[in-house]
């Protein structure tokens, strides 16, 4: 090389400065990745495949994400959050100085009590285990969007317009995955991903996970994990550096899953607006410790309307609601408006049956166990299969279904007498168990209840599968639903030619109890929109015969769309939380405190009453 070709001192200094500048930029980028307090991103000093956009806000349908690292001024970020639309939830994420932001609008904003977790995608390892009984795919239809909304509603999440889902189905910023049941075709889970590089030109090549939700009635294990893994693999293939997510600090079940998958907590902050959706997050909520889900849903709705709540006995679900000069004591959905006479009718199934039968409701044939062995044997021979149940009781305790042999009936009678002195033997009506919730003599919700089933994996025996499914049902229902391993479960298995020690083939399904009660592991599936008016009429007729303002009417039906039915029983304290997203708690509070209803709703109700149409199902 000649002296003329050699770089001079000035050139060498400039080259060294460029190298140091790039090294410094890389160091700063690494530091902001690791330390979490993100400074505002500048398009200069860091390489990016896209131009970095300033003050970037992404509409996700349920609300907007304001990426704090793209904002240079706190006032601009506050202004963006002030543009939040009604009934949505905006989130400012990656806020570098949350204390400064909160000081700018202390009456409007609050620090979100959520942790941020990060999955390092270059080191993430794909699982070799494949989903069994379901598969993960992209959103492909408007029906998918409606199914996602159903899951959101059941999880008390903000719903999204199906048109929004559909318009974003091929977007490069937002990605939707769903889990589909192979047998039924039902959507049983969903997750949303955001590509930060395509959104605002993120030089870190980040991504994030939002709105992970699984149908509480899903029977397959590992749906949430499969959705998270699929999204991680999706972003990994697109060379994203990491995938972040935000989770409430006390959501132990979700945090346990994320840590299992390799997520690590990182110190990033999110800020939200004080609105009615976020109220429990910035007020700390009220002391509801010990209340079960059936009491909580009513207490929450009452407090939302400004009705005073006094918890009398949390463990027993007892509370008092007061507004103005009206005070009502409740035990879950049982209130002082239900008379002792109506409650006693529901309590004794023989009296319930006679009461509704006189009103013209179709009831199955029945005999008392005290009628004697000969009469019972004749009854079983006549009807082929029978149900044995205690005359008093709830939650499916002591009920045996599908008995065909006299010795089976005798054993079932002994079991039922542990719960009540009087025992009923009833004609077994085949079909589906339909629960209709009637409030103020109007249908509010209808749901098919299915008995608990397990799905084989080719390794675990039936006892292990039942225990695993029971744990999942308990977690999904706040401990309200578990599958007992008792004589009824064993009898159901024996009828299917199985025992607790048998191993089911992979994806083989087996019903382990015949009763569909939620408390004994059953699942519940909303059919409010399709239930036949004739079934609604029968339920309202039964409620009026008992003269009970709030009740759950159980019918055995061939289909919720068919007119065929048989009355089973009436429950004076139906679990309103089981029927979300139907407005069961809202209608319950409407009944107790009609003046707390919105004016338009009161006027519509008054018009219906004047027109004499109180027996029609609600359009809400």
TrEMBL record:
Pfam families tied to this protein: Acetyltransf_1
Basic and acidic residues biased stretches: 1-23
The keyword ATP-binding appears for this protein: yes
Domain N-acetyltransferase: 134-284
Highest taxon, organism lineage: Bacteria
Domain ATP-grasp: 353-597
Listed InterPro entries: ATP-grasp, GNAT-acetyltransferase, GNAT_dom
Sequence segments annotated as region (Disordered): 1-49
Protein's UniProt keywords contain Iron: no
Keywords linked to the UniProt accession: ATP-binding, Nucleotide-binding
Membrane spanning stretches: none
The name this protein goes by in its record: N-acetylglutaminylglutamine synthetase
Native species: Pseudohoeflea coraliihabitans
Record gene name: ngg
């Amino acid at each position: 090389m000649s002296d003329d070709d050699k770089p001079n001192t000035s050139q060498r200094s400039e080259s060294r400065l460029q190298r140091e500048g790039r090294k410094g930029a890389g160091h700063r980028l690494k530091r902001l990745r690791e330390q979490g307090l993100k400074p505002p991103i500048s398009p200069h000093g860091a390489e990016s495949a896209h131009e970095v956009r300033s003050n970037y806000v992404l509409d996700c349908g349920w609300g907007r994400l304001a990426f704090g690292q793209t904002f240079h001024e706190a006032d601009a970020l506050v202004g963006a959050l002030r543009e939040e639309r009604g009934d949505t939830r905006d989130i400012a994420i990656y806020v570098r100085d949350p204390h400064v932001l909160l000081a700018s609008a202390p009456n409007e904003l609050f620090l979100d009590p959520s942790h941020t977790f990060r999955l390092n995608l270059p080191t993430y390892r794909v699982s070799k285990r494949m989903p069994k009984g379901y598969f993960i795919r992209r959103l492909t239809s408007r029906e998918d969007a409606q199914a996602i909304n159903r899951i959101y509603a059941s999880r008390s999440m903000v719903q999204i317009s199906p048109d929004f889902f559909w318009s974003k189905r091929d977007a490069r910023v937002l990605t939707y995955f769903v889990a589909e049941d192979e047998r039924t075709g039902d959507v049983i889970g969903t997750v949303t991903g955001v590509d930060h590089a395509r959104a605002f030109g993120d030089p870190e090549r980040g991504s994030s996970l939002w709105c992970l939700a699984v149908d509480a009635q899903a029977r397959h294990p590992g749906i949430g994990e499969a959705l998270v893994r699929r999204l991680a693999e999706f972003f990994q293939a697109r060379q994203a550096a990491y995938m972040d997510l935000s989770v409430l600090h006390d959501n132990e079940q979700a945090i346990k899953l994320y840590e299992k998958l390799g997520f690590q907590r990182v110190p990033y902050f999110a800020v939200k607006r004080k609105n009615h959706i976020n109220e429990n997050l910035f007020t700390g909520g009220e002391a509801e410790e010990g209340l079960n889900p059936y009491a909580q849903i009513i207490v929450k709705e009452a407090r939302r309307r400004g009705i005073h709540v006094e918890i009398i006995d949390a463990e027993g679900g007892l509370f008092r609601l007061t507004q103005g000069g009206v005070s009502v004591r409740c035990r879950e959905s049982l209130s002082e408006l239900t008379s002792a006479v109506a409650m006693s009718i529901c309590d004794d199934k023989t009296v319930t049956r006679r009461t509704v039968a006189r009103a013209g409701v179709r009831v199955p044939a029945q005999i008392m166990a005290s009628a004697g062995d000969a009469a019972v044997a004749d009854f079983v021979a006549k009807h082929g299969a029978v149900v044995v149940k205690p005359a008093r009781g709830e939650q499916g305790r002591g009920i045996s279904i599908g008995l065909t042999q006299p010795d089976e009936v005798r054993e079932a009678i002994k079991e039922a007498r542990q719960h009540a002195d009087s025992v009923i033997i009833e004609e077994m009506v085949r079909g589906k168990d339909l629960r209709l919730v009637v409030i103020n003599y109007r249908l509010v919700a209808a749901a098919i209840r299915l008995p608990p089933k397990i799905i084989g994996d080719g390794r675990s025996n039936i006892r292990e599968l039942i225990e695993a499914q029971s744990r999942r049902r308990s977690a999904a229902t706040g401990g309200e639903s578990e599958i007992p391993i008792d004589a009824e479960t064993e009898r159901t298995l024996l009828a299917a030619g199985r025992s607790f020690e048998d191993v089911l083939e992979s994806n083989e399904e087996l019903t382990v109890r015949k009763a569909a009660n939620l408390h004994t592991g059953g699942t519940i599936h909303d059919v409010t929109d399709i239930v036949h008016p004739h079934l609604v009429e029968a339920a309202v007729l039964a409620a009026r015969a008992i003269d009970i303002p709030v009740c759950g009417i159980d019918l055995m039906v061939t289909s919720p769309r068919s007119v065929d039915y048989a009355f089973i029983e009436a429950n004076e304290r139906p679990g309103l939380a089981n029927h979300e997203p139907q407005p069961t708690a809202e209608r319950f509070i409407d009944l107790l405190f009609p003046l707390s209803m919105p004016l338009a709703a009161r006027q519509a109700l008054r018009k219906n009453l004047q027109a004499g149409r109180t027996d029609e199902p609600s359009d809400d």
